[in-house]
Amino acid sequence: MPPTVAPNDWRMTLTFCLLILLLVVLQKLAGAARKPPPAAARRFFWACPLMATDSVARITPGGQGVFVPTLARLAVAVAGFLAAHWLLGKAARMLGANGIGLSYLGAPILWLASLVFSPLAQLIYLPSGRLLPEVHDNLFAARGVADFWGQRWNLWMSDWFRQVIFRPMRRRPGLAVAVVFLVSGVIHEFVINLGLWIVTGRNQFGSMMVYFGLQAVGLFIERAWLAEHTRLKRVWGWIVVLGPVPLLINEGLLRTLHFWP
C-alpha cells in the first residue's frame, strides 16, 4: 500500500460501493421479474445481497457451529489481503511498476479482496439463521474458460445469468453466451469505468467491453478446438482470463483497491 492514499482513491471506493448497490437492486428487480422469490424467503431476498432467487435456494441453515469457522475464515482472508497488499505494493514501488505491470500485481489483490467479502456477508446475515452460499468455488480447479466463469468465479452472478439469460435463451446457447459476456462488459463499465470518470474525469470506457469480448472469443475457441484436450484447456483458460487482465484491472479498479501509486 502506498505511504499515503489519495483522496480520489477513497472517493473511488465509495463510488464503486454505491454503484454496486444500485446494480444489485436493478439485478434483483430483473431476477424477481423472471422468477419471483418464494413467499417464505421474499423479505430475506430483498434484504440480502443475492441477486437471483436461484441463489436463495442454495442457502443453508446457519447454526451456532457455523459462526466460529466463518469468523476464522474472515480473519484469515483479511490478514491475507492486508499482507499481500503491503508486500505487492512494496514490490510495485521497488520495480517502478505502473500500467500493465501494476495490473498484473493487482490481480491477486482483487482475488483476496473477493475472499474477504464472502465470509463477511455470511457473518452479517448469520443472525437470520441462514448461511449465504459461497461467492467462489475453488478457482484454481478451473478446467477452462467456461468452467472458470460458469462454475468457479462469482457464483452469485452466475446464478443470475442462468436465471435471467441462459434459461430464456436455452434454445440458442451460443447467442446466450455472447449476451452474457456483453452484459458482463456493460456491468463492469458501469461500476468501474463510470466510477473512474465520475471521480477523476478520466475516460477509460470500452476496456471492460473488450476484456469480456475476449472471454467470449476464448470460450468459443475452447469449445471448438480444445474440448477433448483437458490439460491444454486448463492452460488456455488461464491465458484467456489473465492474459488481458490489464483491461479489467485498470486505474479505476486499482484506485478502488487503493493500489494506485
Major beta sheet, strand line-up: 1-2
What is the overall silhouette? globular
| Beta-strand fraction estimate | under 5%
What is the β-strand count?
2
Radius of gyration: 19 Å
Report the structural category: mainly alpha
User: Number of helical runs?
Assistant: 12
Order of helices and strands, N to C?
Answer: HHHEHHEHHHHHHH
Question: In words, what does this structure look like?
Answer:
With 261 residues, this protein is mainly alpha-helical. It has one domain. It is 71% helix and 2% strand. The protein has twelve helices and two strands, in the order αααβααβααααααα. The protein has helices at 7-34, 42-47, 53-56, 64-95, 100-125, 145-152, 155-166, 173-200, 207-225, 230-242, 245-248, 251-256; strands at 60-61, 130-131. The chain has a two-stranded antiparallel sheet. α9 (207-225) runs antiparallel to α10. The longest helix is centred in the N-terminal third of the chain and has 32 residues, at 64-95. It is globular, with a radius of gyration of 19 Å.
